[in-house]
Design goal:
alpha/beta, three-stranded mixed sheet, 15 strands, 18% strand, globular
């Protein structure tokens, strides 16, 4: 595979440009034609037909746990939790497109978390990402996804691969590792096995981003947090972050300063991250343009009363009981939602 790209020395636009080799300098940024807002009105969810403990991802996802239940019962519980969450979002005016089981027969135990393998842009681009483990690469069903999107009136102008489909080193797991502030063309990312700095900066340049905030994290065990969206979320007027996990003081200062320029910051603890998934939430737009905040029941109960009141000022909480998916899959509501920013043709 390719030699890893050296990390640029700064986090600003000049460093983003310097991250690419000269041969890439004629690349046109993809999202310059239209302004992308922060909140999506529609999402893609993938029904968890193969849901189970993923042995391949369990090596660095300390949020995964085995339940003392028969595998069929674990899957059945996950399916029930999924269907209830999808309906709850629909009831509040969010369009939910569901990608069903692949006919190829390959087991994909983490397919319920599609935001890691694709994202979308307002200009009609579908971005597909390099994944860390083999069975997660099998989740990337691009043709089936395009068929689903087109059948619901969405426009897909181009499919953009953020890395080679078989990439094993320059991993960049989508909006699992990249938390975007779309209007300001900023991205926040925690370095990990699933977020390679070279892949991050190259992607940022292609997207025309103006600031990359790359930082290092540690959890209560002293190991990097595997996905950024477990410890932070950026909404339209608020941001949730576990600043405690940013163990380098200068990085912590820079990130909190950047977030505080335009957002009300809710600082959560490592305990809230690890026990309750309080960082794994997503603001959406529902019926009549109402802002919503999708989260799990465990996350909502994990916020303090003061933090709950702050969240309620920014949107109606949509609280979902998904204990099986959280415990076995090691991800929560935000991981289950791939936002749709694509234009509609009908």
């Amino acid at each position: 595979m390719r030699t890893p790209t050296q990390e640029p020395p700064t986090m600003q636009a000049q460093a983003i440009a310097a991250a690419d080799a000269p041969a890439q300098e004629n690349l046109e940024p993809i999202w310059l034609r239209a302004r992308q807002g922060q909140l999506a009105r529609a999402v893609v969810m993938v029904r968890p037909h193969d849901f189970a403990f993923n042995e391949q991802t369990g090596a660095d996802n300390v949020f995964q746990h085995r339940l003392q239940l028969p595998p069929a019962q674990v899957t059945a519980r996950a399916l029930a939790e999924f269907d209830a969450m999808a309906q709850r979002l629909r009831d509040r005016g969010v369009e939910v497109l569901v990608l069903e089981k692949s006919p190829d027969g390959y087991p994909t135990p983490d397919a319920v978390f599609p935001n890691n393998w694709f994202s979308t842009s307002v200009d009609g681009s579908l971005h597909v990402y390099p994944m860390h483990t083999l069975n997660r690469r099998r989740e990337r069903r691009v043709e089936e996804l395009c068929q689903l999107l087109l059948s619901h009136g969405y426009e897909v102008e181009q499919v953009v691969w953020a890395g080679h489909p078989l990439e094993e080193e320059l991993i960049l797991e989508g909006t699992g590792v990249m938390v975007f502030d779309h209007p300001r063309k900023r991205v926040y990312a925690a370095r990990s096995q699933r977020c390679h700095p070279g892949a991050l900066y190259r992607y940022a340049r292609r997207r025309g981003l103006e600031a990359v905030h790359l930082f290092d994290t540690v959890d209560s065990r002293g190991v990097p947090i595997y996905h950024t969206n477990v410890m932070m979320s950026v909404g339209e007027g608020f941001a949730v972050i576990c600043s405690e996990s940013l163990h380098r003081p200068e990085q912590r200062r820079q990130v909190l300063s950047a977030l505080g320029e335009h957002h009300e910051v809710i600082d959560i603890s490592l305990a809230q991250v690890e026990r309750s998934f309080c960082g794994n939430i997503l603001q959406l737009r529902g019926a009549g343009g109402q802002p919503l905040i999708a989260m799990s029941e465990q996350a909502w109960n994990g916020f303090t009363p003061a933090q709950q009141r702050t969240l309620e000022r920014h949107g109606q909480p949509v609280v979902n009981p998904i204990p099986t998916i959280e415990a076995v899959g090691g991800g929560s509501c935000r991981c289950m939602l791939a936002e749709l920013f694509l234009p509609r043709v009908r």
